[in-house]
Amino acid sequence: PSIWPSLRKLWRDLARAQLTFWDGDEDEGEDEQGNEKRKQQDLRILCTSLAKFTRNLVADVPSNQNLAFENEVEIRRLLHYHSSWTANQDSESFPVTRMLTQTLSNIVTANNELMTKLWNIYLNLPEDQVVLIRLLASPDEGTVLAVMVLILNCVYENKARAYMLCKTSIGCRICVSLLDGMSRLYEAHEDSDGARAFDVGYDIFLQLTTAGLVPELYSRLLVDDEIATPHQTTLLKLVDSYLQSVTATAIVSTPAMRKINRKLCPMLSKGFFTKAVYTQHAIKRFLGEEVQRDGNPTQSPSENTGEAPPIELDVMLPKVCEALVLITQCISTITLEPEERELSPIKEQEKAASSSTLRSARSFATFREYFNETRYADNGLVETLIETLRLLDKFLPRINFGRPVSRNESSPSPTAAANVASSGTHQAQGFSYLKRDLVRLLGILCHSTRSVQDRVRKCGGIEVVMNLCVVDERNPYLREHAIFTLHNLLENNPENQQLVDGIKPMGTWGEDGVLQDVPGAVRR
């Protein structure tokens, strides 16, 4: 006789007994409470044993998987019960949730029909019944690992299910929980369940990246009135890690890699513009500069009266700068991939018809050309980058041997800027590497491109880069990257060379080989 009818009855009876366990227990005495505790423990043992038996019974056996799937509702109800806030306070619940999740995963793994059925059910449940979100928030790393394996199995090389994860409201909530878990598990001890869960979580987002769904997810993670959300920043970290790993291992271009990068380009360019412009406005307010209608900064009236302008620091600025660093690194990696990638033959009619601010990457021959030519609100990426660097150089005095160095005594509140930017570990992390990565990107964009070299000169970018040829502990190798960028700006460009030749820096050389700054040095 078949074992499945008896197994089905056992799952139903177990779910009923567990979910009605606390009914009518309001007036129980201490002895009764002790008995109830023992009964609860017995139910946990039974649940774990039954789940383990079912898990082993269905592994790699499609016919058994189809029969066991009839118990999915009971398994889900038991998972919901054992993943409650109260249950999570008792570590004895963790082996139960772990085994139930593994059982559910084994029931559908490698069975495409069942995975699709399960995915459609779970991503259309009422929010309070979505057990995947509850399991991802579990304090037990083993449970988190098991549920991440289940999610990975469902989206692995299946664009339809990955699309649902990014497009549906419940799917986005699951992604938010995944990103929270990734942040929480980042520093998990090596060889622990937490570290393995982090690796599986990375593989989940790798599936979304290769499916070209990251831009869609990034936009859905946006929160009203917030320029950079923590979940967007975490997603950018994963994208940056993916691009770095692909570039490190790839020798030649592949169509799949080009397709992924084409999807990322508009997201990265728009993100760069919005974060950079926000940073500019925040720094201008802090420095007391006003913005005229033509976009040129002017000093506030308080400077004329001799009164110090009020310090207004945007509390979101460190977060925005952290996101800007990640976006800049992603753009740099894409433009420095092995070999110059041809995106597609340039379609003249597409370029002519696409006069909007952010065009498709297909309109350009190379990724570098795309970022050089892309515009947002009539501003080019190169000009926006240089203006951001100019303001950052005022706002963040360089740190040399542990002390902030003010380059220009006439700059408003340099000490205050240094104190604000340096106060708190998290804030300091937000500003770290920002100037270095921006000047590095500028060097990449202008390399052997005369038109970009000329644009940099016309907007005063050469002087900005020369001022960055200094030692700054907040930006390791800033001087080296600035010198390399300056080389790229001057290469085969007589006008730029003539401009630099006309600048005569004043100062004395220090014992460390660094030219000591004086007010107005390297300024025209």
From TrEMBL:
Function: May play a role in the regulation of cytokinesis.
UniProt key word Transmembrane helix: no
Ranges of biased composition (kind: Polar residues): 295-305, 407-422
InterPro entries noted in UniProt: ARM-like, ARM-type_fold, Ataxin-10/CTR86_families, Ataxin-10_domain
Similarity-based family: Belongs to the ataxin-10 family.
Region (Disordered): 289-308, 403-422
Species: Pleurotus ostreatus (strain PC15) (Oyster mushroom)
One biological process term in Gene Ontology: cell division
Domain of life, per lineage: Eukaryota
Record-annotated Ataxin-10 domain positions: 434-517
Keywords: Cell cycle, Cell division
A GO term from the CC aspect: cytosol
Source species taxonomy: Eukaryota, Fungi, Dikarya, Basidiomycota, Agaricomycotina
Name under which the protein is recorded: Ataxin-10 homolog
Pfam families named in the record: Atx10homo_assoc (PF09759)
